[in-house]
């Protein structure tokens, strides 16, 4: 897929996460901790006491990107790191699919940053990388994340009981998806048009 990849749309950017991002990443995560905690993946019991360092996470993301296993991006706004977008669990062969996950700085929510970032990533996945289907799984209570897929027109495909271990429990998730055929003109173009509509 040609990792590393950088993408931009106005003030919103996607780029690889770097070791030098530690301070900015830590500040955003600390500021947004209580807002993000209810939606964060947690290891199920028996919990592994090992915690990955930031540098190890950056190295792992880079290796997965080079191996075409995921597309891990830092999200930027006016050049400042403000979140992450990851297309993970990529399956090739006859499936050509992946799973989209994202988080954003609480102070920047509601500005259209994450829908723009997701649209950028989806278009890259469909029209450059060659994936066919992307899905997003969101807890039913996570209004902010639900608004992203609603704004972008992802199709809801149902409830997946106890799908992921989140915030200490196995949690139900609503599942949403898009295929390349759903957005022949590109998701970013559709998102731009929806923002201009009266």
Automatic annotation (TrEMBL):
Keywords recorded for this protein, A-Z: Acyltransferase, Transferase
Any GO MF annotation of the entry: protein-N-terminal-alanine acetyltransferase activity
N-acetyltransferase domain residues: 26-181
GO cellular component, one term: cytoplasm
Keyword Iron: no
Ranges annotated as spanning the membrane: none
InterPro entries: Acyl_CoA_acyltransferase, GNAT_dom, N-acetyltransferase
Pfam assignment, any one: Acetyltransf_3
Family to which this protein belongs: Belongs to the acetyltransferase family. RimJ subfamily.
Protein's name according to its UniProt entry: GNAT family N-acetyltransferase
């Amino acid at each position: 897929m040609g990792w590393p990849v950088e993408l931009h749309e106005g003030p919103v950017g996607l780029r690889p996460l770097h070791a030098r991002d530690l301070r900015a990443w830590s500040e955003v995560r600390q500021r947004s901790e209580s807002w993000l905690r209810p939606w964060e993946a947690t290891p199920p019991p028996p919990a592994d006491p090992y915690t990955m360092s930031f540098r190890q996470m950056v190295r792992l993301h880079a290796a997965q990107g080079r191996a075409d296993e995921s597309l891990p991006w830092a999200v930027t706004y006016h050049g400042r790191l403000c979140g992450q977008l990851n297309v993970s669990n990529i399956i090739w062969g006859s499936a050509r699919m992946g799973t989209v996950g994202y988080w954003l700085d609480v102070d920047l929510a509601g500005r259209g940053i994450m829908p723009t970032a997701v649209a950028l990533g989806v278009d890259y996945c469909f029209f450059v990388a060659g994936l066919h289907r992307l899905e997003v799984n969101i807890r039913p209570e996570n209004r902010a994340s639900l608004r992203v897929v609603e704004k972008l027109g992802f199709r809801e495909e149902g409830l997946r009981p106890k799908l992921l271990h989140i915030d200490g429990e196995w949690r139900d998730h609503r599942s949403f998806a898009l295929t390349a055929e759903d957005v022949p003109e590109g998701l970013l173009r559709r998102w731009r048009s929806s923002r201009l509509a009266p």
